[in-house]
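User: Could you go from structure to sequence for me? I need the amino acid at each position, not a summary. Structure tokens:
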């Protein structure tokens, strides 16, 4: 639609953004209707704008025309260079209005905001599980396909997710980066630290379905259940 005033007479009726040319408005409308007319001949990925396709093609060609004057690192896109420069300057111009935390780019801020809103827009088509990040969905899909691309160079064991490999490597190195603030005990996994904290808070979340006795850790519940099994065997 065209307005009769202003230096940008064409505007979007959905988000009310203004444009100087009708062609710019047409390109913009694709962001709302999901139309992707431009396709990469190499990998088949589709884009709503030709400019985005051209940027994408550089990831295949290896072309990196944008260089950092500070460390000489090269990038395929100017936006990536701008983001990188902030690692030198410490600038974090994107601000979370909920908790006040600052970020180097808008995409990282958007991912962060999902922590507050609980939004999980990425859904597994196999089991329906939802994720806040697309990278987490991709990692999850490997649990369905059986793919294990992460390889331990020490013992040869393979894993479906990089986080699993990192946890596993600690069994070789003995590293325990998770620290209890109360007693100083250290753990190789954050989940183990969380379980341990319950021994201080006396929280008992694990309930025996046979006698209703509660335990602070699942491992203690499993040990307890064995006592019922032994009693049953002795009575037979």
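Assistant: Here is the amino acid at each position, in order:
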């Amino acid at each position: 639609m065209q307005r009769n005033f202003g230096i940008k007479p064409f505007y979007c009726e959905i988000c009310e953004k203004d444009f100087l040319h009708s062609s710019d408005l047409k390109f913009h409308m694709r962001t709302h209707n999901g139309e992707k007319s431009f396709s990469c001949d190499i990998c088949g990925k589709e884009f709503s704008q030709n400019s985005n396709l051209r940027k994408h093609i550089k990831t295949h060609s290896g072309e990196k025309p944008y260089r950092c004057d500070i460390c000489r690192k090269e990038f395929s896109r100017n936006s990536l260079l701008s983001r990188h420069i902030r690692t030198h300057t410490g600038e974090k111009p994107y601000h979370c209005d909920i908790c006040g935390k600052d970020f180097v780019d808008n995409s990282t801020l958007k991912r962060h905001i999902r922590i507050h809103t609980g939004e999980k827009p990425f859904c597994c088509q196999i089991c329906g599980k939802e994720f806040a990040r697309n990278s987490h969905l991709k990692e999850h899909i490997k649990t369905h396909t059986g793919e294990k691309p992460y390889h331990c160079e020490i013992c040869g064991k393979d894993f479906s997710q990089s986080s699993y490999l990192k946890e596993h490597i600690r069994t070789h190195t003995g590293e325990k980066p998770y620290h209890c603030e109360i007693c100083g005990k250290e753990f190789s996994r954050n989940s183990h630290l969380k379980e341990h904290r319950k021994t201080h808070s006396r929280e008992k979340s694990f309930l025996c379905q046979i006698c209703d006795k509660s335990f602070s850790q699942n491992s203690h519940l499993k040990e307890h259940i064995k006592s019922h099994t032994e009693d049953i065997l002795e009575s037979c």
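One structural detail worth keeping in mind: Residues 218-235 form the longest helix (18 residues).
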